[in-house]
């Protein structure tokens, strides 16, 4: 069973006498949960994410229950003498994959993110967007139990952004936790289990409805689950509404921008759900 990562009384300041950036942070990240972190510029979001990712240690307080963690930093260091594929394969082996499995996973993720054409390009010659795809791929390679994403969507093209949203749904669907910061308030809107704001040097849990599901076009999805199975929690969160229409049959309404994430969540559920029908609300009448 995957451990729950916990921060208790955590504080961080830089330098012996630097001001406290964060103090008194108590936070648990449950397996399978999606957590959004918000806050104004320079409030300490990246500091918190580095602590969660385990690449920085708190000045005070305790971090316990570290799961297998992967991290997409705000700035990815590309100045390494490797091609994208060799770099990712190497990192895959560092994460515990065999060389063969790492090479396969590297190829699959470059393909999914639309960067297969850059597999043999040295990291130093990649554009900013392609570098970001490598940064995302290195974090997803080994199916981490905790995925920490610091502005990971920034610089990606629309297809890769959608692919990363699907990857997040897959991780949480598989029981992993995902913590993310993103400047777009609509990112994964409606999906997070918890939203925290970094303000005045500490963390505040946002109560009330999480980020509202955006207005705009909707899609209606008819699904049939395995006998007796409850609708997967991730699907329930992404959907704007869900209605049980018969034994195992549900009709879900979802923002069109989130329909891909919803479908992927259902199709990758274990056991998978059968998508019976996808249509617009107008067709439904
Ligand atoms: N390595 C460091 N050394 C010294 N000070 C740092 C370091 N990293 C962050 N800080 C300081 O800590 C504070 C919080 O920075 P942090 O990058 O965590 O905030 P943020 O909310 O992620 O900001 P942004 O939204 O601009 O990315 C800032 O005052 C920053 O200057």
From TrEMBL:
Keywords assigned: ATP-binding, Nucleotide-binding, Transport
Cytoplasm listed as a keyword: no
Superkingdom as given in the UniProt entry: Bacteria
Annotated InterPro entries: AAA+_ATPase (IPR003593), ABC_transporter-like_ATP-bd (IPR003439), ABC_Transporter_VariousFunc (IPR051782), P-loop_NTPase (IPR027417)
Any GO MF annotation of the entry: ATP binding
Domain ABC transporter: residue ranges: 5-225
Alphabetized SMART domains for the sequence: AAA (SM00382)
Gene3D superfamilies: P-loop containing nucleotide triphosphate hydrolases
The protein's name in its UniProt record: ATP-binding cassette domain-containing protein
Organism: Streptomyces hyderabadensis
Top-level taxonomy: Bacteria, Bacillati, Actinomycetota, Actinomycetes, Kitasatosporales
């Amino acid at each position: 069973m995957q451990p729950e990562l916990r921060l208790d009384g955590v504080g961080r300041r830089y330098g012996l006498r630097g001001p406290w950036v964060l103090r008194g942070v108590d936070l648990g990240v449950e397996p399978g949960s999606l957590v959004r972190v918000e806050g104004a510029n320079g409030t300490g979001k990246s500091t918190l994410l580095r602590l969660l990712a385990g690449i920085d240690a708190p000045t005070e307080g305790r971090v316990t229950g570290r799961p297998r963690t992967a991290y997409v930093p705000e700035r990815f260091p590309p100045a390494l003498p490797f091609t994208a594929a060799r770099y990712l394969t190497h990192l895959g082996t560092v994460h515990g994959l065999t060389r063969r499995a790492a090479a396969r996973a590297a190829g699959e993720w470059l393909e999914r993110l639309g960067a297969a054409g850059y597999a043999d390009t040295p990291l130093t010659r990649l554009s900013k967007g392609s570098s970001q795809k490598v940064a995302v791929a290195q974090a997803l390679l080994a199916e981490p139990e905790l995925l920490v994403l610091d502005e990971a969507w920034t610089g990606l093209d629309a297809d890769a952004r959608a692919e990363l949203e699907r990857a997040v749904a897959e991780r949480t669907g598989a029981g992993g936790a995902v913590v993310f910061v993103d400047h777009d308030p609509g990112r994964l809107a409606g999906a997070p289990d918890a939203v925290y704001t970094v303000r005045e040097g500490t963390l505040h849990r946002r109560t009330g409805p999480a980020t509202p599901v955006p207005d705009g076009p909707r899609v209606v999805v008819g699904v049939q689950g395995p006998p007796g199975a409850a609708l997967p929690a991730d699907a329930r969160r992404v959907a704007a509404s869900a209605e049980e229409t018969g034994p195992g049959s549900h009709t879900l309404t979802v923002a069109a921008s989130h329909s891909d994430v919803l479908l992927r969540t259902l199709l990758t559920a274990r056991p998978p759900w059968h998508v019976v029908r996808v249509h617009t609300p107008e067709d439904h009448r």
